[in-house]
Amino acid sequence: MLKRGAKIGIIGGGQLGRMLALAAYNLGFKTEIFEPQNNCPASLVSNTHICADYDDINSLTEFAQNCDIVTFEFENIPIKAARIIEENANLYPNSKSLELTQDRLVEKNFIKTCNLECAPFFEINSLEDLQSAITKAGTPCILKTRRMGYDGKGQFVIKTPDDAQKAWDEIGQNPAIIEGFVKFDFETSIILTRAIDGQIVFYPNSQNIHENGILRTCIVPAPLNEKQIAKAQEIGAKIANELNYVGTLAVELFVGDEIVVNEIAPRVHNSGHWTIEGTATSQFINHIRAICGLPLGNTEICAPKIEMQNLLGDEILSIPELLKSPNTYPHDYGKNEIKAGRKMGHVTRLIK
Amino acid sequence: MLKRGAKIGIIGGGQLGRMLALAAYNLGFKTEIFEPQNNCPASLVSNTHICADYDDINSLTEFAQNCDIVTFEFENIPIKAARIIEENANLYPNSKSLELTQDRLVEKNFIKTCNLECAPFFEINSLEDLQSAITKAGTPCILKTRRMGYDGKGQFVIKTPDDAQKAWDEIGQNPAIIEGFVKFDFETSIILTRAIDGQIVFYPNSQNIHENGILRTCIVPAPLNEKQIAKAQEIGAKIANELNYVGTLAVELFVGDEIVVNEIAPRVHNSGHWTIEGTATSQFINHIRAICGLPLGNTEICAPKIEMQNLLGDEILSIPELLKSPNTYPHDYGKNEIKAGRKMGHVTRLIK
């Protein structure tokens, strides 16, 4: 259990790191960010910021030695960097969680070893692989780079076999997978926090609505029946236990006749931002409590219906207007540059 | 209305400043603290900290010029310093609120000009004044320094006229007042936020229980009937309007056959910490919204019953134990040194 005033290191300086740092302050902890970019959302609130690259071994070592514990807010940390951190500090979740989720092919294979359902998938290393996979998967199907994709980037929806060359070029001919199309009614996620001793708390599920590959809206509760909720929790627990996971974990799911795993995020997740005002203990606070060896908080919902919307691009300028409505909680991540489609903030509404 | 990413200056670096800074970060603002002490609760979370004394004109000027707006978290700022700030930035609340509340005699006279009830009081400049006042006020009565007292410091309860010399020496023979004893059933406070345009929102009242002059426990709701609540709100509004106040204001009240004003605090207040988890918009967030020219948030209560307890001295070490209970929200202010009776944190429980 971490002592009073301990320093929590967070790898990655985006809004997830920012909200983790703010959660850490409630309990009197200090925060240090490791992030190559300056003036990022998290470093705008953290005590200190090591502004260095992920191949800077000295800085990584210094960071890990400065901190009493280390966590991360994004999964595309080079494994070599994560291992250097682990040599010098406790890293929660561990580097195995990163290894198994930062490569889509490795992730899909891991899901299969857990005896869970995911989209049919094929390994793609060449145009020939791609053409063959399209035949097996059928169309439409999705070409995704194995590494570094997020928020719809590094993906190409293939509508006919003629799209193959264009798709292959579009993703830079990088190692990839083809995912077969999964028929579903809606998308949800299972968010949970797992403690060092293995205890798990689950969050209520949200219905997650995407546009152009980016999460747009969450509606809580999701239209799941009890059996489906139990299944979603079973999936989350299975993955968390297999990883010996510590902290908050999110698994994105397709809901149709079956519940099918889409992606695993070994971190706090956009589809859980509503938990800040919407549940008894947010995903961020429980993540901090878990990695610090403190008891987990309960996760009951605070209103019968809750909505979260991302504020993209210049939607961030609508905050003064949003604040006119009751039970409305806009968040601004402090990003200087407004770009179309960029996640600038979010707003949660409790409908009481 | 303050622009995105603006910098809010907070004079004073204690836990109230810390919680104001954390509130400011939700909306993407930056924070700078002006505080003579280093490593204080607020500077442990703020972006920057000007560590200088209140007579350091250059530092005060630099601070005010750095910030887009300035507020404060404690009222004993030398008026000269407040005026220097006001020459260089918008100060909310204004320096008049400081002037009228940092001297107990001035404050009592102000309360009378508002046609409000307060304890009978007498100006004390000498032992002779004191002896005469004790005769008029009766015993018990309380000797309080006019300036710089808080949390029971700079006070002496006079039980018999023989206490006069000891009391006078105990408070360092400083300019003082005698307050006559007020018979009351319990103590409460009225906390409100007033916007730049004069709109006011009120918070539910807490019953405030003190020990040794320090607030120990708040119980919400306070056992006030509707008429008493209306009276308390009338008192708060009267004072806020007279001061043309902007921000969160707290007025401590004695509740008996009448409601009598005890003290005015031109700032967020210990008896309002429970509002963080206990109402729709905390006293801290509404203070930030008010001074930034943003709409005020609603203040409905989130549970039928709420308790707040201060964590004094080594009680702060009980946080891991407290976290085992549901709907329990401990806060640690990050103060390094544990001293008996020192406000180290607080814990709020929502009883659902």
List the helices and strands and how they pair.
The structure is a homodimer of 352-residue chains.
Chain A: E1 7-11, H1 15-26, E2 30-34, E3 48-50, H2 57-66, E4 69-72, H3 79-88, H4 95-99, H5 104-113, E5 121-124, H6 127-137, E6 141-145, E7 155-158, H7 164-170, E8 176-180, E9 186-194, E10 200-202, E11 207-211, E12 214-220, H8 226-242, E13 247-255, E14 259-265, H9 275-278, H10 283-291, E15 305-312, H11 319-322, E16 328-332, E17 343-351
Parallel strand pairs in A: 1-2, 1-4, 2-3
Antiparallel strand pairs in A: 5-8, 6-7, 6-8, 9-10, 9-11, 9-13, 11-12, 12-15, 13-14, 15-17, 16-17
Helix pairs in contact in A: 1-10, 2-3
Write structural notes for this entry.
Two copies of one chain form a homodimer. Chain A folds into three domains: 7-91, Rossmann fold, CATH 3.40.50.20; 120-180, ATP-grasp fold, A domain (Dna Ligase, domain 1), CATH 3.30.1490.20; 186-351, ATP-grasp fold, B domain (D-amino Acid Aminotransferase, Chain A, domain 1, 2-Layer Sandwich). Chain A has helices at 15-26, 57-66, 79-88, 95-99, 104-113, 127-137, 164-170, 226-242, 275-278, 283-291, 319-322; strands at 7-11, 30-34, 48-50, 69-72, 121-124, 141-145, 155-158, 176-180, 186-194, 200-202, 207-211, 214-220, 247-255, 259-265, 305-312, 328-332, 343-351. With 352 residues, the first copy, chain A, is of the alpha+beta class. In chain A, the strands form three sheets. In chain A, strands 9, 10, 11, 12, 13, 14, 15, 16 and 17 form a nine-stranded antiparallel beta sheet that branches. Chain A is globular, with a radius of gyration of 20 Å. Chain A contains eleven helices and 17 strands. In chain A, strand 13 and strand 14 (259-265) form a beta hairpin.
